[in-house]
Design brief:
Layout: E1 5-12, E2 18-19, H1 37-40, E3 49-50, E4 55-57, E5 67-75, H2 80-87, E6 93-99, E7 102-107, E8 112-116, E9 119-123, H3 125-133, E10 149-150, H4 159-172, E11 178-186, H5 188-199, H6 205-209, E12 225-234, E13 237-238, E14 244-246, E15 251-253, E16 257-263, E17 266-273, E18 276-286, H7 290-304, E19 312-314, E20 318-325, E21 328-329
Parallel strand pairs: 4-19
Antiparallel strand pairs: 1-2, 1-5, 1-20, 3-4, 5-18, 6-7, 7-8, 8-9, 9-17, 10-11, 11-12, 12-13, 12-16, 14-15, 16-17, 20-21
Length: 332
């Protein structure tokens, strides 16, 4: 039986650095003003702000929240029978393997669905072509999501309807609390351009030659699709997306991720990692201000950046929930 966790709020900045208070209740209204307040409070029109010689802030900080709920949580269970009915409907299952907590389905058309522990994945041949030319993560050297539009309608269905379709599938599989999403509009023309760019990139020449990267070669309007990058939220605050390890104690908290691709033919890709569900509310805690969190991140970056003063830009600042076990904060 999985042990429940207790979660507290932190601020997550670039490079997965975070700051949280491990002291008893701290009254953020009585804390001294931060030396970074002018930059932290700057509106978008005044960004980017140069914080130090080589550290730039190019994102608005979230508003201070004050008190937040402390939640006891557990990992959500995925309804595999519902997943099979929804994602493998009309497909011929050619192989089904179940061993302990691991379950894998393969179909005659090349689709695969697997689950093990807190990880779930569903892919079709079409999704492989998409993932070969579209990269959403800024941590990936092949990142190109910024060249695609977001939240724009495609011909096969409006984006609001697409969001409802994905939410209905997740709900039927027993997954709720996926309240925030970035939806990329992948039209066939942009996908063709991205594929051509990758083909012409010498960095991928060997992988292409060895057949490790396969291309579709011909894109039509039938290939238009939406790519969802979603956040698991509890009490309207997203849970930290990246794994975070505290080296002093050797503890680690696992981030969560929900990705989906929707085309005119339905869900083509669905990936879920570490989806949490609320078990109970244990009380409330007060959090440090966003300005203090920013100061902590800047100090950590200053210590970690090499002597060559490589520029660093903080382009995303958000409040995220972080876990602590037995009331001991994993990050502090």
């Amino acid at each position: 039986m999985k042990k429940p966790f207790v979660m507290c709020l932190i601020f997550l900045m670039l490079f997965s650095l975070c700051a949280c208070s491990n002291q008893s209740a701290v009254d953020i209204t009585e804390q001294p003003p931060s030396s970074l307040d002018p930059a932290a409070g700057a509106p978008a029109s005044q960004l980017p702000q140069q914080l130090t010689t080589n550290i730039t802030l190019d994102a608005e900080l979230p508003q201070n929240t004050g008190k937040v709920d402390i939640l006891t949580v557990g990992l959500a269970s995925i309804d595999m029978e519902a997943a099979k009915q929804l994602l493998l409907a009309g497909k011929e299952i050619t192989n089904h393997v179940q061993s302990g907590a691991t379950e894998v389905y393969t179909t005659s058309d090349g689709s695969t669905m697997s689950a093990t522990g807190s990880f779930f994945s569903f892919d079709t041949n079409f999704s492989i072509y998409i993932n070969n030319v579209f990269t959403w993560s800024k941590n990936d050297p092949s990142y190109n999501a910024d060249t695609f539009l977001t939240n724009k309608d495609l011909g096969f269905c409006p984006i609001d309807e697409a969001k409802m379709q994905v939410a209905d599938v997740l709900h039927s599989m027993g997954i709720d609390g996926i309240d925030r999403s970035t939806v990329y509009t992948l039209d066939h023309a942009m996908l063709a351009e991205a594929e051509t760019a990758k083909k012409n990139n010498p960095d991928y020449a060997i992988d292409i030659q060895n057949g490790q990267i396969k291309f579709k070669d011909s894109w039509t309007e039938n290939d238009d699709c939406y790519f969802f990058v979603m956040e698991c939220c509890l009490h309207n605050i997203p849970i930290i997306a990246d794994d975070f390890e505290r080296t002093e104690s050797g503890t680690i908290m696992f981030g969560n991720r929900v990705l989906a691709i929707l085309s005119k033919d339905g869900i083509q890709h669905l990936q879920m990692i570490n989806i949490y569900r609320e078990l109970s509310v244990e009380g409330q805690c007060e959090i440090i201000s966003s300005e203090q969190a920013l100061e902590t991140v800047v100090k950590n970056l200053t210590l970690s950046l090499p002597a060559t003063n490589i520029p660093s830009e903080m382009s995303n600042c958000a409040m995220c929930r972080n876990m602590r076990i037995s009331s001991i904060p994993i990050c502090a």
